[in-house]
């Protein structure tokens, strides 16, 4: 399942973007680790590449980035630009570069929900996932996050939402890290209000 291929079309063109490395202005790197351009042909590590992610980031009205939240993945310095976010964060940087759309809208991680400051385009903490705090999220981010004045703890998923996530959205466990089980499928089908067994 390649979540990057899921383009949502409603009143706006929106794209879901997976990411390996993310920078404070929403720029993504999924191409290489090493110095560019010197190490491009023989990088320290070759990553999967764009696979159309750059086109989605450049042309969709908004993008929603999903990723695991680890300090090593949230980088202060951009080593390679695979998919553009707000570039250097300066006013109208996307427009000057000829990019369409508003740019990144949200970053949904295993620790938090993040957005971007309207004036500076720096990443901003909006909500913490269950078991996380502002401090724990910041400690696992490689640059200083802005914190929204109304940051809140995100509610854990309901039993109905767990069924939907585990059995319909991600039954193979690509993102949640575990496969749905036959027992869970039976529980989910029996009643939308049945608690999912772990």
What descriptors fit this protein?
disordered N terminus; three-stranded mixed sheet; seven-stranded mixed sheet; 5 helices; Glutaconate Coenzyme A-transferase; 26% strand; disordered C terminus; single chain; 19% helix; transferase; alpha/beta; globular; 198 residues
- The total count of strands amounts to 12
Q: How would you spell out the order of helices and strands?
A: EEEEEEHEEHEEEHEHH
In CATH terms, the superfamily of the largest domain is Glutaconate Coenzyme A-transferase
CATH class of the largest domain: Alpha Beta
**Structural class estimated from helices and strands:** alpha/beta
Largest sheet: 7 strands, mixed
Q: Which architecture of the largest domain would the CATH scheme give at its second level?
A: 3-Layer(aba) Sandwich
CATH third-level topology of the largest domain = Glutaconate Coenzyme A-transferase
Based on CA atoms alone, the radius of gyration comes out at: 18 Å
Distinct helical segment count: 5
Count of separate structural domains? 2
Identify the strand order in the major beta sheet.
1-2-7-9-10-11-12
Backbone shape: globular
Biased composition (Polar residues): 181-198
Protein name: 3-ketoacid CoA transferase
Keywords: Transferase
Organism: Desulforamulus profundi
Record the SSE blueprint:
Elements: E1 7-9, E2 13-18, E3 21-23, E4 28-29, E5 32-33, E6 45-46, H1 53-59, E7 62-67, E8 74-75, H2 93-96, E9 103-109, E10 112-116, E11 123-128, H3 134-139, E12 146-153, H4 159-169, H5 182-190
Helix pairs in contact: 4-5
């Amino acid at each position: 399942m390649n979540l990057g291929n899921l383009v949502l079309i409603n009143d706006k063109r929106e794209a879901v973007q997976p990411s390996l490395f993310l920078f404070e202005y929403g720029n993504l790197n999924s191409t290489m680790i090493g110095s560019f351009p010197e190490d491009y042909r023989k990088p320290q590590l070759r990553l999967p590449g764009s696979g159309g992610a750059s086109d989605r980031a450049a042309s969709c009205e908004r993008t929603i980035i999903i990723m695991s939240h680890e300090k090593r993945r949230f980088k202060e310095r951009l080593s390679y630009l695979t998919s553009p976010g707000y570039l250097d964060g300066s006013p109208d940087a996307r427009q000057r570069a000829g990019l369409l759309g508003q740019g990144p809208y949200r970053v949904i991680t295993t620790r938090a929900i993040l957005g971007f400051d309207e004036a500076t385009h720096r990443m901003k903490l909006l909500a913490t996932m269950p078991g996380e705090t502002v401090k724990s999220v910041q400690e696992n981010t490689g640059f200083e996050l802005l914190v929204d004045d109304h940051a809140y703890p995100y509610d854990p998923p309901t039993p109905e939402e767990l069924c939907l996530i585990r059995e319909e959205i991600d039954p193979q466990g690509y993102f949640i890290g575990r496969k749905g089980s036959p027992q869970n499928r039976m529980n989910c089908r029996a009643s939308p209000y049945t608690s999912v067994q772990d």
